[in-house]
Amino acid sequence: MNETTAPKSPSLTHALICFSGLLIWIGTGIFWLEAGLHGILLMGLVWVCLNIFFLGYDYHRMRSAMLKGIERALPALFIFMLIGIVIATFITSGTVGTLIYYGLNFLSPAIFLPAGLILCSLISLATGTSWGTIGTGGIVLISVGEAMGMPLPVVAGMIISGACFGDKM
């Protein structure tokens, strides 16, 4: 591609072919080939890059677009890593086990769901992260709910609802 030629915009047909090929490749790799996810995603990236080359984009433009996308995603990835570190620290230090013990002693099944909803809302409101609340308080509450014989989908809904509610306040 020379400098004066602008890349083409994809037609609807081209976009559908690219997207369908990507979905077929991912589905085939996961369900039929039972391959690892990293290889499947790498081959999917190759497929998309070939389609972008077909439209007239050069390597440098693609690379800068990819780096810009990675740069925009890094703060969120950093937060997810920190949440993982906090969860691992809580589990290793025995905080989760202690909270499960006290949760089983102080909460009765009659007040478990409303109390858990309020607790998740308060944790999420205080920390500002619904993901951190689900990863920390959610582990404790799902364990307490399972030990009390509560239906796990209802307990999971309570945790997610409380975390999202508190995060949006």
Verbal overview:
- There is one protein chain.
- The chain has 169 residues and is mostly helical.
- The protein folds into two domains: 12-57, no CATH class; 79-168, no CATH class.
- The chain has helices spanning 12-32, 37-55, 59-93, 95-106, 109-127, 130-148, 152-168.
- It is elongated.
- It starts with 11 loop residues before the first helix and ends with a helix.
- 15% of the residues are buried.
Topology:
Blueprint: H1 12-32, H2 37-55, H3 59-93, H4 95-106, H5 109-127, H6 130-148, H7 152-168
Helix pairs in contact: 1-2, 3-6, 4-6, 5-6, 5-7, 6-7
Entry summary:
With 169 residues, the chain is mainly alpha-helical. The protein is 84% helix and 0% strand. The chain has helices at residues 12-32, 37-55, 59-93, 95-106, 109-127, 130-148, 152-168.
